[in-house]
Amino acid sequence: MNVRITGTGSALPGKILTNADLEQMIDTSDEWITTRTGIKERRIAADGEYTSTFAAEAGRSAMAMAGVKPEEIDLIILATVTPDFPFPSTACIVQDLLGATNATAFDLSAACSGFIYGLSIAEKYIRSGAAQKILVIGSEVLSRVVDWQDRNTCVLFGDGAGAVVLEASDGDHSLLSTHTFSNGAYWNLLYQPGSGSRNPATDSRTIDERLIYLTMEGNDVFKYAVRGMEDVALMALDANGLSPSDISLLIPHQANRRIIDATAKRLGLDSDRLFTNLQNYGNTSSASIPIALDEANRQGVLKPCSKLLLVAFGGGFTYGSALINW
Ligand code: UT7
Fold this sequence. Notes:
- This protein is of the alpha/beta class.
- The protein folds into 2 domains: 2-171, Peroxisomal Thiolase, Chain A, domain 1, CATH 3.40.47.10; 176-325, Peroxisomal Thiolase, Chain A, domain 1 (3-Layer(aba) Sandwich), CATH 3.40.47.
- The chain contains 11 helices and 13 strands.
- It has a 5-stranded mixed beta sheet, with helices on both faces.
- The radius of gyration is 19 Å and the shape is globular.
- The protein starts with a strand and ends with a strand.
- 50% of the residues are buried.
- The structure holds oxa(dethia)-CoA.
């Protein structure tokens, strides 16, 4: 049983926050942000827009492309670190918004690798025969957990969602492999200290000490990201008996242009085999790869039977790769 991506979709807030806007808010510059990260602007959710809002819109768009009705979906996996609520899962809210009445729905927490983890789980459900049609979504509203007084982090992140429909298939156009890894030894290099059971939102200290916001040791994360992305990319290639020259397009997690370029260089991939859009959206965590995949798909960049390599790295640490024969 093969596993085919039959539809892609994405959804982004209308509000754009540029580097020039950030210059008015904090001590930063377009020059610093551009040279250190490659980001020029990011999208920010408006009042009344939530993680579920973008997830449902991206999911609807992916289902429309696949020609799949909501009631046909067996499983909804929603990767996010910014759920609407601690519980119930945002996936259940999305199930309701979509009318996917026959689905099982759950959230998945693997930070920026969440979408690849979701693909990996979906692949196993389909190959085992436990599900036929699955919606995997990455959706984030990071602007609500970013400290807008912290220039080290607030310039990096953005909001949005991407989604794919996966279906059982007996053709060649298939997900060839997924690989996922975690290294919990570094959990505290990128995390949100407050609002969970350690530092509850009800504790005034959580607010007073700004624990509610995400925090990151950027330099350390950078080093592990480059090494980790290369490692998971090579695992995908090894598992399929392929070399970097066989890859048509690398779609990496969009965290930092320098991380992406270093990864591509280590793999020997030129920029024409690299898809990037972080200049427009910043780091949207679990949403970044499915948004990029949808854009590449709709731009006609993905040719039938081209080999796509998706690689992610994120908080946890978590790592993941997926190789697709498109
Ligand atoms: O998505 C999950 C994974 N996340 C990542 O992969 C992110 C990984 N990390 C990074 O992308 C980079 O480490 C950053 C973009 C976060 C930072 O870049 P860097 O080249 O590592 O800069 P740095 O942290 O070493 O900071 C250099 C200087 C510091 O000033 P001093 O101490 O040298 O005087 C910072 O205070 O840049 C300063 N700085 C800024 N200056 C202007 C930090 N943020 C800003 C800013 N504007 N926004």
